[in-house]
Amino acid sequence: MSEEKVTDRRDFCETKTCAEAPPPARAMGWRELYLKEDWWAIYLGLGITVVALLAFLNGSKLVQTLSINPGGLKWTTLGQVGAYFSANIGTYLLQMLCWLVIFGATTRIMGMKLSEFIPSFIILYLLSIVMFTISGWAHAAQYNLEPPLVALILGLIIANIIRVPKWMDSGFRVEYYIKTGIVLLGATFPITLVLTAGPYALIQATFISVATCLVIYFAATKIFGLDKRLGAVMGVGGAVCGVSGSMAAASAVGAKKDYMYISVTLVVVWALVMILFIPFVSRALGLPAGVAGAWVGTSEFADAAGFAAATAYGHMAGNENAAIQGFTLMKVIGRDMWIGIWSFVFAMIACLKWEKEECQTRPNAMEIWWRFPKFVIGFLVASLFMTLLTAGYSKADFNGVVKPGLIMPIVSLRTWAFIFCFLSIGLTTRFRELKSSGLKPFIAFTIGVAVNVVLGFVLSVYVFGGHWAALGK
Predict the structure, then answer these.
(1) Is the pLDDT of residue 410 over 90?
(2) Tens of pLDDT along 217-254?
(3) What's the number of domains the chain is made of?
(4) Which of 412, 431, 376, 397 is nearest to 183 (CA)?
(5) Residues 6+ apart with CB under 8 A from 319
(6) Distance CA 220, CA 235 (A)
(7) Residue 134 domain boundaries
(8) Which residues, at least 6 apart from 89, have a Cβ–Cβ distance to it below 8 Å?
(9) Secondary structure of the chain: what % helix, strand, coil (to 5)?
């Protein structure tokens, strides 16, 4: 039985009586433990974390070896690229086999055809290597060629120029890859790291996340009359980590596939604009590097784009560390942790209010559980697990031993999962299928962008400016 075969509750309500329309997860019952991507994402994310930990404690380099990627190559000639892959071809074949086994076996359990998944995933993996290699060019940072953005943009180009066979969608498991990546994000996100951000970053991130999400949601639903699920997906996409937030919210509220793609497209467009806009304005105003980095972290819509913008301004201001630190505290730590919070909030709203209104049924406690986005549990468990394990290390030992030996290999594997996801989004997004959405989503999202950028500037420069200006000194 495949998850995709279960009837959507909203579609069911349009043709059947509401009493006949159980939500997909509830209809699946406890079989969701082995039929839903949420649970498999938890199993894989926590499993990879445990294996990485055991390898680290035993001094094994296995996980470090299997987490290889060409993103840090810094090549200048194709000869260097050829030499690199000639020396590491065996490791990449082993890595591909490992990914193929864990994703292939689990998708087969969930009802997918291996005859379609295997060739599709192999193509996806090879394309992902190309994306990493492009980002490994020595001048990639100068042109903002971060792996996730490269994957997303080139995927969009390929899908809208070449007719990708429909059967290949079997390997483009967007939600599965992103959920696995989010669980691995938790493993690289010790709670102690959140606490080091201090009250200023957390307060500012809270203001920005809540304001941006609510403005986009109400602009979309109240001003333009768009579907509330689309409003939720766009709101979370603008409030948190754009692409990841959009997909997490789409899963939480049971949104249509097109809604997620609309939000992701808007996020990418404005993320690219902000790469140029914020550093340019910051330079014109002569902002300190830490202040500009915080503004980037407050107003960028994608981690990769934000890192590129912060790095660019850090070079301009002559203090790259302060710019990156400000960005990291605000975006990677402050705002990104809202992925789980917003997923939970909107899942509850969808279950307790929207579906009750649509089908005139009263949800029970178990229905809330069926609908809850389980990968959020994985994120929290992974974060708590890593927090407990690293709590006994000093800051020096954490940075010198734990981070390179345990955290960074997981970060690399997380990046692979995100690349699979972003590339899959691009390869399954056809702009011609999004024409029917019109300009309303764009205008609603843009209103949120305007509020986000202005509020972020005020908070970063005037309210908490003294704190951010002191970074790197």
Answers:
(1) yes
(2) 999 999 999 999 999 999 999 998 777 788 778 877 88
(3) 1
(4) 376
(5) 288, 289, 290, 472
(6) 9
(7) 32-469
(8) none
(9) 80, 0, 20
